[in-house]
Amino acid sequence: MPLIEDFRPSHDDDPRNQQAIDHDPNTLIYPPLIPRPATIVENLREAIGTMRSAAGSISDSGHDIEDTWGALPNHYSAPGSDTLFSAMGRVSERGDDIDGDIASAVSELETFADAAETAKERLGSLREEAWEFREEMQAEDAWSENPINTLRNLQLKLAVNKAWGEY
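RE: above sequence
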């Protein structure tokens, strides 16, 4: 069995290049390989708030346009004015449609932000646990000969992969 220190795979902080941890119970977990979600949850939540506000403004503006133009038919007459005035009702409808579509997107983004936050916390906790486990195993001469150690190693790896997969 190679020494623990001999196994040092490269690590890439770009989440597009991060992968699940191997399932080999005899290869000691290497905490720097535990993926790190790159989502900045605070920024995402701020963008969600901005989107929600913008959608509401679009809807409100559509209704304001309809209200403002609604009084004109009593005072304005020209060729094609009926077509113009009938189109004003569609502005508020389209504004409401946009508001609804953005609300759906915002809801999905909120779900993703929650999942990202949970994954970051869980993977961070698992990383700390993996470092503690690794230090304990480095103190043992033949850590992988003890089935309890290899089982714990595998459990950590599977927990990491589950958290990464849920992200």
